[in-house]
Amino acid sequence: MMTNIIELTSVTKDFGKGRGIFDVSISIKPGMVYGYLGTNGSGKTTTIRNLMGFLKPQQGTVRIKGKDAWKDRTELKYDIGYVAGQFEFPRLRTGTQFLRYYAKYLGITDFTYMERLIELFKLDTSVNLKRMSKGMKQKTALVAAFMGDQEILILDEPTTGLDPLMREVFLKLVREEKAKGKTIFMSSHIFQEIEEVCDVAAIIHKGRVVDTVDVDKIRNPENKWFGITFNTAWDRADFVDRFRFDTVKIVGGRSCEVTIPAMDLMILLQHLKGYLLCEFQEKHTTLETYFKEAIRKGE
Ligand SMILES: Nc1ncnc2c1ncn2[C@@H]1O[C@H](COP(=O)(O)OP(=O)(O)OP(=O)(O)O)[C@@H](O)[C@H]1O
Fold it and tell me: Where do the ABC transporter domain residues begin and end (predicted)?
C-alpha cells in the first residue's frame, strides 16, 4: 500500500473565539495534486503554517515524508518548495539578486530550470523588488518555489495577483510538475483552478474540513446530465412518454432534464432524432456546487 507523503491527523490550532483550525485530518499520496478550498478566514493559511512547521499544533500530528513537520522542520525545508500567502522579500535590490541568493540557499548551481521558469512567467527580474507590481512579486515567489525542483510543493493561494494568462501558465506548470511525480498542496478560493488541476480537494469552513471531493469524478462524471428544450410542449410530452428514461425531470412545458450513464449518450441522441429541438445542453455539476452544499451542511 502506498504510504501518505503528507498526513495531518486531528490537528488543532485554536486562536480563541472560534478562530483557527480544529481536528483537521488530511492524507495525501505521493504524486497527488491536492486542493484546499475555503472562504476568507476559514483556516487555509493556518493549516499551511502547520504543514511548514511554522506553527506547532496544540493537538494532533503533522507528518511529511514520515517526519514530524514541527520537530524536523529544518530538515524538511529542503524537500519542500513553498509559496507563502503573504511574503516579504529580504533586503535585496532586484529580483535577480533575490533569486540568486535563494538559489545559493537551496544549493542550486545549474540555473537552467530557473531561467526556464523566468521565461515561462515572462518575468523581468532586473526590476527593483520594491517597485515590482503585485503580479511580478507573485511570479518571483513562484519561480523561487519551483526552481529547487523539490518533491513537494506547498502553495498558499499561488495565483493571487496573476492575470488570467499567467494563471493559465501557472496551471500548465502544475500539470508538468505533476507529470514529474511531484506532490502539490495548493490552497485557493477559486473553484475553477482547483477543478482544472487537482485530483482531490478538501473544503475547509470555519476551521474544519467539511468535505473531501474526488475532483476527477467532477471532471469525468459517470453520469451525464442534459437540458433539452423541444419545439413544442407536445414534442416534449411525446419524448418523455415514449422513452422512459429513469431520470427524466420535467422542468417546463417544452423542457426536460435527462440524466444518463455517460456511455448511453448515443442512445439518447438516437431517441431525439426526428424532434425539432430549441436547446440541447450538457449540464455540469461543478466544484462550486459541491462547495456551496458542503458549506451549507457545515453551517
Ligand atoms: N496568529 C494568529 N492569532 C490569532 N488569530 C489568528 C492568527 N492567525 C490566524 N488567525 C485567525 O484564524 C482564522 C483563520 O485564518 P487563516 O489565515 O488561516 O485563514 P485563510 O483561510 O488563510 O484566509 P484568507 O483566505 O483570507 O487568507 C482567522 O479568523 C484569522 O483571523
Answer: 6-231
Asked if residue 209 and residue 193 are part of one domain, the reply reads yes
- Separation of alpha carbons 207 and 204, rounded Å: 6
Are residues 173 and 30 both part of a single domain?
Answer: yes
For residue 37, what are the β-bridge partners? Answer: 188, 203
CB-ligand 1 contact for 50 (6 Å cutoff): no
Co-location of 39 and 152 in the same domain: yes
Compute the residue count for the chain. 299
pLDDT at site 279: 96
**How much distance in Å is there from the Cα of 46 to the middle of ligand 1?**
6
**pLDDT tens figures, 38-94:** 989 999 999 999 999 999 999 999 999 999 999 999 999 889 999 998 888 888 899
The answer to whether the CB of 35 is under 6 A from ligand 1 is: no
Whether residues 260 and 207 share a domain: the answer is no
Q: At what angle do helices 112-120 and 164-179 cross, to 10 degrees?
A: 150
Q: Whose CA is nearest to atom 27 of ligand 1?
A: 40
Count H helices, E strands: the chain? 11, 14
Residue at which a domain ends, from 170, 190, 218: 218
> Which amino acid is it at 203?
I
User: Which residues, given as ranges, of the chain have pLDDT below 50?
Assistant: none
Ligand 1 in reach of 45 Cβ (< 6 A): yes
Counting ligand 1 atoms within 8 A of each CB, the residue from 8, 42, 58, 203 with the most, and so the one to mutate, is: 42
Look at residue 288 and tell me if it is in a domain: no
Q: Which domain holds residue 22?
A: 6-218
Domain count, the chain: 2
Shared domain check, 265 and 183: no
